[in-house]
Design brief:
alpha/beta, five-stranded mixed sheet, three-stranded antiparallel sheet, 12 helices, binds zinc ion
Length: 326
Protein backbone atom coordinates (compact mmCIF):
# COMPACT_ATOMS: atom_id res chain seq x y z
CA UNK A 1 0.00 0.00 0.00
CA UNK A 2 2.87 2.36 -0.72
CA UNK A 3 5.41 3.98 1.56
CA UNK A 4 4.67 4.32 5.26
CA UNK A 5 3.97 7.94 6.18
CA UNK A 6 6.99 9.77 7.52
CA UNK A 7 6.62 12.22 10.43
CA UNK A 8 4.81 15.37 9.41
CA UNK A 9 3.16 13.90 6.36
CA UNK A 10 -0.51 13.14 6.19
CA UNK A 11 -1.39 9.59 7.10
CA UNK A 12 -2.50 7.76 3.99
CA UNK A 13 -4.80 5.15 5.50
CA UNK A 14 -6.54 2.56 3.40
CA UNK A 15 -6.19 2.84 -0.36
CA UNK A 16 -9.11 4.44 -2.13
CA UNK A 17 -10.74 2.10 -4.62
CA UNK A 18 -11.54 4.27 -7.64
CA UNK A 19 -12.49 7.15 -5.38
CA UNK A 20 -14.88 5.06 -3.28
CA UNK A 21 -14.06 6.16 0.24
CA UNK A 22 -15.88 3.42 2.10
CA UNK A 23 -15.66 -0.37 2.33
CA UNK A 24 -18.23 -2.08 0.13
CA UNK A 25 -18.34 -5.41 1.95
CA UNK A 26 -17.41 -6.92 5.31
CA UNK A 27 -14.36 -8.42 3.64
CA UNK A 28 -13.19 -4.97 2.54
CA UNK A 29 -14.05 -3.58 5.98
CA UNK A 30 -11.72 -6.12 7.61
CA UNK A 31 -8.96 -5.35 5.10
CA UNK A 32 -9.26 -1.58 5.53
CA UNK A 33 -9.26 -1.43 9.32
CA UNK A 34 -6.84 -3.98 10.75
CA UNK A 35 -5.59 -1.72 13.57
CA UNK A 36 -6.01 1.58 15.42
CA UNK A 37 -3.64 3.40 13.02
CA UNK A 38 -5.84 2.58 10.02
CA UNK A 39 -8.95 3.73 11.91
CA UNK A 40 -7.25 7.00 12.96
CA UNK A 41 -6.12 7.71 9.41
CA UNK A 42 -9.66 7.20 8.13
CA UNK A 43 -11.11 9.46 10.83
CA UNK A 44 -8.52 12.10 9.95
CA UNK A 45 -9.74 12.13 6.35
CA UNK A 46 -13.35 12.45 7.52
CA UNK A 47 -12.61 15.15 10.08
CA UNK A 48 -10.20 17.21 8.01
CA UNK A 49 -10.98 16.47 4.35
CA UNK A 50 -8.96 19.56 3.31
CA UNK A 51 -6.09 18.91 5.71
CA UNK A 52 -5.52 19.22 9.45
CA UNK A 53 -6.91 22.22 11.31
CA UNK A 54 -5.94 22.50 14.98
CA UNK A 55 -9.12 22.35 17.11
CA UNK A 56 -7.44 24.58 19.73
CA UNK A 57 -5.89 27.44 17.71
CA UNK A 58 -7.43 26.85 14.24
CA UNK A 59 -4.05 26.93 12.52
CA UNK A 60 -3.77 24.76 9.43
CA UNK A 61 -0.10 23.75 9.53
CA UNK A 62 0.46 20.01 9.13
CA UNK A 63 0.89 18.57 12.64
CA UNK A 64 3.86 16.68 14.02
CA UNK A 65 3.13 13.03 14.46
CA UNK A 66 4.05 11.02 17.52
CA UNK A 67 3.54 7.42 18.47
CA UNK A 68 0.09 5.97 19.11
CA UNK A 69 -1.66 8.37 16.77
CA UNK A 70 -0.84 11.50 18.73
CA UNK A 71 -0.72 14.75 16.80
CA UNK A 72 1.04 17.91 17.97
CA UNK A 73 0.06 21.33 16.65
CA UNK A 74 3.11 23.18 15.32
CA UNK A 75 1.81 26.52 16.52
CA UNK A 76 0.17 26.05 19.91
CA UNK A 77 2.03 22.78 20.67
CA UNK A 78 -1.13 21.15 21.87
CA UNK A 79 -1.00 17.36 21.84
CA UNK A 80 -4.13 15.51 20.72
CA UNK A 81 -5.57 12.60 18.81
CA UNK A 82 -8.00 12.74 15.91
CA UNK A 83 -10.92 11.99 18.25
CA UNK A 84 -10.33 14.99 20.57
CA UNK A 85 -13.57 16.81 21.43
CA UNK A 86 -15.83 14.23 19.74
CA UNK A 87 -18.05 11.39 20.93
CA UNK A 88 -15.07 9.06 20.41
CA UNK A 89 -12.87 11.09 22.78
CA UNK A 90 -11.49 9.67 26.04
CA UNK A 91 -12.76 6.18 25.44
CA UNK A 92 -10.93 3.09 26.66
CA UNK A 93 -12.60 1.05 23.95
CA UNK A 94 -10.23 0.54 20.99
CA UNK A 95 -11.08 2.39 17.77
CA UNK A 96 -11.21 -0.95 15.95
CA UNK A 97 -14.10 -1.95 18.25
CA UNK A 98 -15.87 1.37 17.64
CA UNK A 99 -15.48 0.81 13.89
CA UNK A 100 -16.81 -2.71 14.06
CA UNK A 101 -19.82 -1.53 16.07
CA UNK A 102 -20.48 1.21 13.49
CA UNK A 103 -20.25 -1.38 10.71
CA UNK A 104 -22.79 -3.72 12.30
CA UNK A 105 -25.17 -0.93 13.32
CA UNK A 106 -25.28 0.47 9.79
CA UNK A 107 -25.13 -2.70 7.71
CA UNK A 108 -27.40 -5.10 9.60
CA UNK A 109 -30.86 -4.65 8.12
CA UNK A 110 -32.46 -3.81 11.46
CA UNK A 111 -29.38 -2.66 13.32
CA UNK A 112 -28.28 -4.45 16.46
CA UNK A 113 -29.31 -4.39 20.10
CA UNK A 114 -26.69 -3.82 22.79
CA UNK A 115 -27.18 -7.47 23.77
CA UNK A 116 -26.41 -8.76 20.26
CA UNK A 117 -23.50 -6.35 19.89
CA UNK A 118 -22.09 -7.59 23.20
CA UNK A 119 -22.07 -11.17 21.86
CA UNK A 120 -20.91 -10.27 18.36
CA UNK A 121 -17.94 -8.14 19.45
CA UNK A 122 -17.08 -10.00 22.65
CA UNK A 123 -17.27 -6.83 24.73
CA UNK A 124 -19.16 -6.14 27.96
CA UNK A 125 -22.80 -5.11 27.81
CA UNK A 126 -21.83 -1.72 29.24
CA UNK A 127 -19.33 -1.07 26.42
CA UNK A 128 -21.82 -2.18 23.74
CA UNK A 129 -24.57 0.00 25.23
CA UNK A 130 -22.26 3.03 25.51
CA UNK A 131 -21.15 2.77 21.89
CA UNK A 132 -24.74 2.48 20.67
CA UNK A 133 -25.91 5.43 22.76
CA UNK A 134 -23.08 7.63 21.52
CA UNK A 135 -23.64 6.68 17.91
CA UNK A 136 -27.32 7.52 18.31
CA UNK A 137 -26.34 11.04 19.36
CA UNK A 138 -24.20 11.29 16.23
CA UNK A 139 -27.15 10.10 14.12
CA UNK A 140 -29.21 13.13 15.15
CA UNK A 141 -26.77 15.48 13.46
CA UNK A 142 -27.31 13.74 10.15
CA UNK A 143 -31.03 14.64 10.22
CA UNK A 144 -31.09 18.40 10.17
CA UNK A 145 -32.72 19.08 6.83
CA UNK A 146 -36.44 19.76 7.17
CA UNK A 147 -39.11 17.60 5.60
CA UNK A 148 -40.85 19.13 2.59
CA UNK A 149 -43.64 18.55 0.08
CA UNK A 150 -46.63 16.67 1.48
CA UNK A 151 -46.00 15.71 5.11
CA UNK A 152 -48.27 13.59 7.28
CA UNK A 153 -48.08 14.20 11.02
CA UNK A 154 -49.69 12.06 13.69
CA UNK A 155 -49.17 10.69 17.19
CA UNK A 156 -48.44 7.05 17.97
CA UNK A 157 -48.33 5.22 21.28
CA UNK A 158 -45.15 3.22 21.71
CA UNK A 159 -43.81 0.89 24.36
CA UNK A 160 -45.61 -0.23 27.42
CA UNK A 161 -43.95 -3.59 27.95
CA UNK A 162 -40.80 -3.69 30.02
CA UNK A 163 -38.23 -6.47 30.45
CA UNK A 164 -39.55 -9.99 30.12
CA UNK A 165 -42.84 -8.87 28.63
CA UNK A 166 -44.26 -8.12 32.05
CA UNK A 167 -46.22 -4.94 32.31
CA UNK A 168 -45.18 -3.07 35.41
CA UNK A 169 -43.51 0.10 36.48
CA UNK A 170 -42.77 2.17 33.40
CA UNK A 171 -45.30 0.17 31.43
CA UNK A 172 -47.05 3.36 30.45
CA UNK A 173 -47.22 4.00 26.74
CA UNK A 174 -45.15 6.86 25.40
CA UNK A 175 -46.48 9.45 22.96
CA UNK A 176 -44.32 9.64 19.83
CA UNK A 177 -44.92 12.28 17.17
CA UNK A 178 -44.22 11.07 13.66
CA UNK A 179 -43.81 13.19 10.52
CA UNK A 180 -43.50 11.44 7.15
CA UNK A 181 -43.04 12.82 3.64
CA UNK A 182 -45.62 11.19 1.37
CA UNK A 183 -45.02 10.84 -2.35
CA UNK A 184 -48.11 9.85 -4.29
CA UNK A 185 -49.28 7.34 -5.23
CA UNK A 186 -47.69 5.03 -2.65
CA UNK A 187 -44.18 6.20 -1.85
CA UNK A 188 -42.72 7.63 1.34
CA UNK A 189 -39.75 9.95 1.76
CA UNK A 190 -37.97 10.81 4.99
CA UNK A 191 -39.27 10.69 8.56
CA UNK A 192 -38.70 12.55 11.82
CA UNK A 193 -39.85 11.47 15.28
CA UNK A 194 -40.07 12.95 18.75
CA UNK A 195 -40.95 11.49 22.14
CA UNK A 196 -43.19 14.10 23.81
CA UNK A 197 -45.01 14.30 27.17
CA UNK A 198 -48.48 14.51 25.57
CA UNK A 199 -50.39 15.21 22.36
CA UNK A 200 -51.28 18.80 23.21
CA UNK A 201 -50.72 21.70 20.84
CA UNK A 202 -47.77 22.75 23.02
CA UNK A 203 -46.02 19.50 22.02
CA UNK A 204 -47.28 19.17 18.45
CA UNK A 205 -46.78 22.63 16.99
CA UNK A 206 -43.13 23.18 18.03
CA UNK A 207 -42.27 19.71 16.69
CA UNK A 208 -43.80 20.50 13.29
CA UNK A 209 -42.11 23.92 13.19
CA UNK A 210 -38.75 22.33 13.89
CA UNK A 211 -38.83 19.41 11.47
CA UNK A 212 -41.14 20.49 8.62
CA UNK A 213 -40.27 23.13 6.02
CA UNK A 214 -42.48 26.24 6.08
CA UNK A 215 -43.57 25.67 2.48
CA UNK A 216 -44.83 22.14 3.10
CA UNK A 217 -48.42 20.91 3.11
CA UNK A 218 -49.06 19.35 6.53
CA UNK A 219 -51.69 16.62 6.68
CA UNK A 220 -53.21 15.71 10.03
CA UNK A 221 -56.39 14.28 11.45
CA UNK A 222 -59.02 16.51 13.02
CA UNK A 223 -57.33 16.81 16.44
CA UNK A 224 -57.51 20.37 17.82
CA UNK A 225 -53.86 20.21 18.91
CA UNK A 226 -52.91 20.99 15.31
CA UNK A 227 -54.95 24.21 15.21
CA UNK A 228 -51.89 26.43 15.57
CA UNK A 229 -50.28 25.29 12.31
CA UNK A 230 -51.99 27.72 9.96
CA UNK A 231 -50.98 30.64 12.18
CA UNK A 232 -47.41 29.41 11.81
CA UNK A 233 -47.74 29.71 8.05
CA UNK A 234 -48.29 26.07 7.08
CA UNK A 235 -50.78 24.91 4.48
CA UNK A 236 -52.79 22.58 6.72
CA UNK A 237 -54.92 19.77 5.32
CA UNK A 238 -57.09 17.96 7.82
CA UNK A 239 -58.87 14.70 7.37
CA UNK A 240 -61.47 14.11 10.02
CA UNK A 241 -61.21 10.35 10.24
CA UNK A 242 -64.65 9.70 11.69
CA UNK A 243 -66.26 11.92 9.03
CA UNK A 244 -64.40 10.38 6.08
CA UNK A 245 -65.37 6.91 7.26
CA UNK A 246 -61.87 5.67 6.35
CA UNK A 247 -59.78 3.96 9.01
CA UNK A 248 -56.54 5.77 9.93
CA UNK A 249 -54.36 3.58 7.70
CA UNK A 250 -56.26 4.78 4.63
CA UNK A 251 -56.30 8.50 5.38
CA UNK A 252 -52.79 8.59 6.90
CA UNK A 253 -50.92 5.74 5.17
CA UNK A 254 -47.43 7.19 5.81
CA UNK A 255 -47.49 7.57 9.57
CA UNK A 256 -49.49 4.37 9.94
CA UNK A 257 -46.87 2.40 8.03
CA UNK A 258 -43.90 4.01 9.81
CA UNK A 259 -45.47 3.57 13.26
CA UNK A 260 -45.98 -0.14 12.64
CA UNK A 261 -42.38 -0.56 11.38
CA UNK A 262 -41.12 1.30 14.47
CA UNK A 263 -43.12 -0.88 16.85
CA UNK A 264 -41.98 -4.03 15.06
CA UNK A 265 -38.34 -2.89 15.29
CA UNK A 266 -38.61 -2.17 19.03
CA UNK A 267 -40.28 -5.52 19.66
CA UNK A 268 -38.07 -7.53 17.31
CA UNK A 269 -34.54 -6.13 17.48
CA UNK A 270 -34.85 -4.83 21.02
CA UNK A 271 -37.37 -7.28 22.51
CA UNK A 272 -39.54 -4.35 23.56
CA UNK A 273 -37.19 -3.42 26.38
CA UNK A 274 -36.90 0.29 25.68
CA UNK A 275 -37.07 2.54 28.75
CA UNK A 276 -38.94 5.81 28.35
CA UNK A 277 -35.79 7.80 29.26
CA UNK A 278 -33.97 6.27 26.28
CA UNK A 279 -36.82 6.16 23.77
CA UNK A 280 -35.64 9.28 21.89
CA UNK A 281 -32.25 7.63 21.28
CA UNK A 282 -33.97 4.64 19.68
CA UNK A 283 -36.15 6.96 17.60
CA UNK A 284 -33.01 8.66 16.29
CA UNK A 285 -31.49 5.34 15.27
CA UNK A 286 -34.68 4.21 13.56
CA UNK A 287 -34.90 7.54 11.72
CA UNK A 288 -31.25 7.45 10.62
CA UNK A 289 -31.69 3.95 9.18
CA UNK A 290 -35.13 4.58 7.66
CA UNK A 291 -33.98 7.74 5.89
CA UNK A 292 -31.13 5.81 4.30
CA UNK A 293 -33.06 2.69 3.36
CA UNK A 294 -32.53 3.33 -0.35
CA UNK A 295 -28.83 4.21 -0.05
CA UNK A 296 -26.90 2.52 -2.83
CA UNK A 297 -24.36 1.09 -0.41
CA UNK A 298 -24.45 0.19 3.27
CA UNK A 299 -20.77 1.11 3.38
CA UNK A 300 -21.78 4.65 2.49
CA UNK A 301 -24.09 4.72 5.53
CA UNK A 302 -21.21 3.41 7.66
CA UNK A 303 -19.01 6.27 6.47
CA UNK A 304 -21.80 8.77 7.10
CA UNK A 305 -22.15 7.60 10.71
CA UNK A 306 -18.41 7.94 11.36
CA UNK A 307 -18.41 11.33 9.64
CA UNK A 308 -21.08 12.49 12.12
CA UNK A 309 -19.37 10.79 15.06
CA UNK A 310 -16.16 12.71 14.40
CA UNK A 311 -18.12 15.96 14.07
CA UNK A 312 -20.22 15.54 17.24
CA UNK A 313 -19.18 16.86 20.63
CA UNK A 314 -18.57 14.61 23.65
CA UNK A 315 -21.37 12.80 25.46
CA UNK A 316 -21.19 12.46 29.23
CA UNK A 317 -21.52 9.23 31.16
CA UNK A 318 -24.72 10.61 32.71
CA UNK A 319 -26.21 11.06 29.24
CA UNK A 320 -25.40 7.47 28.37
CA UNK A 321 -26.86 6.11 31.61
CA UNK A 322 -29.87 8.29 32.28
CA UNK A 323 -30.84 9.42 28.81
CA UNK A 324 -29.52 12.18 26.61
CA UNK A 325 -30.95 15.68 27.09
CA UNK A 326 -32.50 16.09 23.64
ZN1 LIG B 1 -2.92 24.66 17.66
Amino acid sequence: MGVAPSPGEAATGPALVAGVDYPRSYREFVEWFPDAAACSAYLERLRWPDGFVCPACRSAAAPWRQTRGRLVCRLCRRQMTVTVGTILDKTRTPLTTWFEAAWHVTTAKNGMSAKTLERTLGVSYRVAWTMLQRYRVAMVRAERERLSGDVEVDEALVGGVEHGGKPGRGSQKCVVLIAVEVKPPKGFGRVRMRHVPDASGASLVPFVCEVVDAGAVVRTDGWAGYNGLVRRGYAHQRTVVSASGDPAHVSMPGVHRVASLLKRWILGTHQGSVGAEHLQSYLEEFTFRFNRRTSRSRGLVFRRLLEQAIATGPVTEADVTHGYAW
